[in-house]
Design a protein that fits this description.
Blueprint lengths: L7 H5 L10 H4 L9 E6 L2 E8 L4 H11 L10 E4 L2 E7 L2 E7 L3 H11 L5 E5 L4 E7 L3 H8 L11 E7 L2 E9 L2 E7 H15 L4 E3 L19
Parallel strand pairs: 1-11
Antiparallel strand pairs: 1-7, 2-5, 2-6, 3-4, 4-5, 7-10, 8-9, 9-10
Length: about 220
């Protein structure tokens, strides 16, 4: 992969999809009264990758960039040297990586897949992620969506609906989940989550306070 990275000054000018709510200003340490603890995981790179899992050239090209093979089992969520990969459908994957490495990742994938029937799309500005933990986080999920979230084991991720929003739910450890959703749903979804979590006690905190082992390590160093 190329050594090209996005300058830190450019990253500092980025605004998250939830910036209007100024969540950092609400940040505090969780207490025993907080059943749901949340934080936005800002400024990650989201690259949509499409191709045929049966195409050896496609699979080998991607593996040469990511340092591991793409998962082919439904609901898979795997960590690779090049980023976290979520299986979305038989011919679609999301690659989530540090934002500073976005340009290098896209360029390397395009180079490796030159002449191959495939598509690489940078959609970094169109998504964000939120870490949700706390003793009542499963109750919150049950209120928000119809999926059987108890069946979602560590290392699995599913796309589902929560009211009117489409959300990917990633079970990264036994303490909580990471929710991935589109910028266009951000305002609506945050208001929905806040209202639904209120009866259980809601705490907004910094990502490092309740870090997950998969997505939090991809954040810029200051987080």
């Amino acid at each position: 992969m190329s050594d090209h990275t996005i300058p830190a000054a450019d990253l500092a000018r980025l605004r998250t999809p939830l910036h209007v709510f100024n969540l950092p200003a609400e940040s505090r340490a969780p207490t025993a009264k907080d059943g749901v603890v949340v934080s936005e995981l800002p400024h990650l790179a989201y690259v949509i990758l499409r191709g045929q899992a049966t195409d050896a050239a496609f699979m080998q090209g991607v593996a040469s960039v990511l340092g591991a093979s793409l998962p082919t089992q439904p609901a898979s969520l795997v960590q690779t040297p090049g980023g976290v990969v979520q299986w979305v459908s038989p011919d679609e994957w999301w690659v989530i990586a540090p934002r500073a490495r976005r340009d290098a990742l896209v360029a390397s994938l395009n180079t490796a897949l030159q002449g191959v029937f495939a598509q690489v799309v940078d959609n970094s500005g169109g998504h964000t992620a939120m870490r949700v933990t706390g003793p009542a986080h499963m109750l919150l999920l049950r209120h928000l969506g119809p999926y059987d979230f108890e069946s979602l084991t560590v290392g699995k991720a599913v796309s589902t609906v929560m009211a009117k929003a489409v959300v990917s739910v990633c079970r990264t450890d036994d303490k909580g989940v990471v929710l991935l959703f589109r910028r266009s749903f951000a305002d609506y979804f945050w208001r929905l989550l806040r209202r639904t979590a209120a009866p259980y006690g809601l705490c907004v905190t910094q990502p490092g306070t309740h870090a997950d082992p998969v997505f939090t390590p991809l954040l810029p160093a200051q987080h």
